Amino acid sequence: MNRSIRGRALRTALLLDLAAAWFFLAPPQLGGSTLYSATVGTSMEPLFHAGDLAVVRRAPSYKVGQVVLYESPVFHRAVLHRIIVAQHGHYFFKGDNNDFVDAGYATRGDLLGRLWFRVPKAGRALSWIGKPRHSALVAAAGTLLLLLVGARAVPRALRRRRRRGGSGRARGRKPMLSSTLLARLRRPRRSLLSLAGLVALVVGPVAVVTGLAQPGTKTVQVRSYESTGAFSYVGHANAASSAAYPAGIVQTGAPIFLSEIRSLTLSFDYRFRSSLPHHVRGTIVLRSVLADESTAWHHRYRLKAPQSFAGDHATASVQVDLHDLTEQLDALAASAGTPGASYALELDPLVHITGTVAGKHVSQDFTPTLPFTANNAVLKLNVSAPAMAPGATYAAPSAASVLLAALHRRRRGRCRAA
C-alpha cells in the first residue's frame, strides 16, 4: 500500500472515529443526547462516590431497578437515584445508601436519562474544567502544545526535502502541511502530543459552552422548555362582613359558602419558560366539568371563548354566577332523588402553544385541572397529597404545601426537529 492510499485510509478512520464520538458522547448543546452529571454526597454508595462522573442517555422507557437522572419536583435540581416503584406514570426514587424514599415523585417528563456508565473521580476534573478561567487555561495549553509540535515538525520536513533536491513541493505530492500532518501521525510519540494538544484545544471551549458536569445541584442544560400555570379565585360576600368572611371577601384556597358569595372570579395565569432563544404563540380557553362520580354522568362547559396570545404570558379570567350553579345542583339532586348530593367540579383550562425554541419546532397542549367538591351549600377544593410509596419514611407534606402544589402546575417539554 503506497503512502497516498495509507494517508487517505488514516484520514477516513479518523473522521469515522470523530463521528462516532460525537454521536455517542456529544451533549445536547452540540446536537447530541448525552448528559453528564458530577455526583456529590453518599446517597448512591457503593455504586457512586462523591466526585464520580455519571454519563446518562435518554431511553424510550424506564423500569424499576434502573438508575435514572431525574429533575426532582421537590428539590428543583437533578438527582441520580434508582427507581423503586413505577405506578400510573409516577416514578418513586431512592438512593442505594439511603433508608428512606425520595420525597415526592417524578413523571415521565421529569426523567432526563438512564445511567450509561460511570467514570470514577472524573466529575471533579470536568467540574474544574467547566469553570471559564480553567477552561481558558486548558485551551491555551492545547494551542501552545500544537504550535510547539508544528514548529519542530516543519523545519525537519524542509531539511528532508532540501536533501532530496526539492524546492517547495515534491513533484506529484500533496502540500507540505498535509504531508507533515501525516508524518506526525505516523510517529507515535509526536502523534500523541498532537492529539493531546488537539483534545485540550477542543475540550476547553466546549466545557464552557456546555457547562459539563457542574457539581452537585446542576447538570448539563437540556434543550427544553416549561409550561407553568397558576390558579386563583376571589369573591365578595353579600354582606360587608360575616362569620365566615370577616373581611367580606373569599380568596384562593378558602371554602366558598354559596349562601354568602354571589359570584366568583376564576383565573388561570399561564407562563412559558425557557432559557434558550424562543418565540411562541398560542390560545387559551377556560372550561369546567361537572360530574356525578356515582353514576359516571358528566357535562363539560366552556366558561370563556378561546383567546389568542403571543409571547410567554397569558391570563384567562371569568366571572361565575354561583346562584346559577346552586340552581343547577338542586335540579340535578332532585332528578336523581338525592337531595344535598355532592358533585365533582373541575376548572379545566386548555392552553395550546406553538413556536420555536433554539430554532426547533415546539407544539404542546397544557391541560392542568383544579378539582372542587360542590353541593348546594359549599364549594371547596378537593386536593390531597399523593400516596406514599411502599417503604417511604419521609414526613407527609403539610396542608399548605399540598395546596400550593395543586394551585401551581407545570409541564416540561423537549424540542423536536423542525
| Beta-strand fraction estimate | 25-35%
| Main sheet: strands, sense, barrel | 8 strands, antiparallel
Helical proportion, percent range: 25-40%
Instruction: Spell out the helices and strands N to C.
Output: HEEEEEEHHHHEEEEEEEHEEEEEHE
Straight-line distance between termini: 46 Å
Gyration radius, to the nearest Å?
Answer: 31 Å
Mean pLDDT: 75
Low-pLDDT runs of 5+ residues are: 167-182, 184-190, 208-223
Q: Number of helical segments?
A: 7
Number of domains: 3
Given the C-alpha coordinates, what overall shape results?
elongated
User: What would you call the structural class?
Assistant: alpha+beta
The counted number of beta strands is 19
Summarize the structure.
With 418 residues, the chain is an alpha+beta fold. It is 29% helix and 35% strand.
SSE blueprint:
Layout: H1 3-25, E1 34-38, E2 53-57, E3 67-71, E4 78-87, E5 90-94, E6 111-119, H2 122-129, H3 132-164, H4 176-186, H5 188-210, E7 224-237, E8 249-251, E9 256-257, E10 261-273, E11 278-292, E12 297-310, E13 313-321, H6 322-336, E14 343-347, E15 350-357, E16 360-366, E17 370-374, E18 378-381, H7 399-407, E19 408-414
Antiparallel strand pairs: 1-2, 2-6, 3-4, 3-6, 4-5, 7-8, 7-10, 7-19, 9-18, 10-13, 11-12, 11-14, 11-15, 14-17, 15-16, 17-18
Helix pairs in contact: 3-4, 3-5
